Amino acid sequence: MFITKLKTLGDLEKVGYNLSLGPDLEDLGRLKTVGGDIEFVDSKVKSLGNLESVGGNLYLAKSQVEDLGNLKHLGGEIVLNDRQKELFKDRLWQKYKGVGAYYLKEDNASSEKEEIF
Rounded CA gap, 109 and 94, in Å? Predict the structure, then answer.
């Protein structure tokens, strides 16, 4: 599901599959669970807020997210940009050991991932 033209997800609490969020989104509202991957495509979201569980991968590299909010479960990899790598590194290591954490170099035109730990 690709969400565009919305500023908030409002009362939506669960998405069973993949979710891709567009540039107009500012707030995840009451969203707690995404069953598959979640990708932020140039969205204005700063915090994952109430989001507790992502069943697949979490793609944050093309986002402004600077707070992981209430995230407790991550079933796949997390992909970050350089700024997020520094913001989240300690929390990711302590909380999600064994989960692949990667970042995209901002100067890398080919969008290659490099492992954080």
Answer: 31
74 CA to centre of own chain:
10
More confident residue, 104 or 38: 38
Q: How many H-runs (helices) and E-runs (strands) does the chain carry?
A: 1, 11
How many domains is the chain partitioned into structurally?
1
- Which range of residues forms the domain containing residue 78? 2-115
pTM: 0.80
Rounded average pLDDT over 96-108: 53
DSSP per-residue letters across 16-53: SS-EEE-TT--B-TT--EESS-EEESS----B-TT--E
Whole-number Å distance between alpha carbons of 53 and 84 = 19
